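Run log, item B.
One chain of 180 residues. Sequence copied directly from the ordering sheet:
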Amino acid sequence: MKDNQPTVAIHLVSQPWNYNQPDAVSTDRGHGRIEKRSLWVLPIKQTEPIPKFPTATQMIQVLRETSALDGTNPRREVAFAITSRNATDASPQELQDFLRGHWGIENRCHWVRDVTFDEDRSRVRLGSGPQVMASLRNLALSVHRLNGAKNIAAATRSCSYDNILPFRLLGLRGLATRAA
């Protein structure tokens, strides 16, 4: 839960979380660090719904503990979430997988838009320009992903070096030969 919902955040923080035994735990090693995620789930009582989220049925607390592979630079982060998926439709392990999937989207899409395309510094501000540029960035990202690119920055650079490659990636072979 982000700080943009302070009432909900206060509600979640004040719950009686049982820290003895997490409902789900996972540990990953990679990118030079170890990350352990512990997840606790509590049902939301129908008699005490969360403000602005009347269909929410479960609340989640995640503790992320990260450190370098040698155990140095430990860091702890607590996050909260709510879901309308009930306990029979989403077990704690499934909730943990859903949350991890969300970060996959963040890393594969939003991070690329923020860093590779430097979208936040765009000076296009008038009329439909911002929407057009966002659509073009989405097109470029999708075309590169559909063509198997793992590194969008490298794929974008390749297109800037070869004026025929963008047409080939789009399947426009006839236009690709005329562009040369």
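Observations after the first pass:
- Strands lie at 24-30, 33-43, 58-68, 75-83.
- The helical segments are 6-13, 92-116, 129-146, 152-161, 165-169, 173-179.
Flagged for discussion on Thursday.
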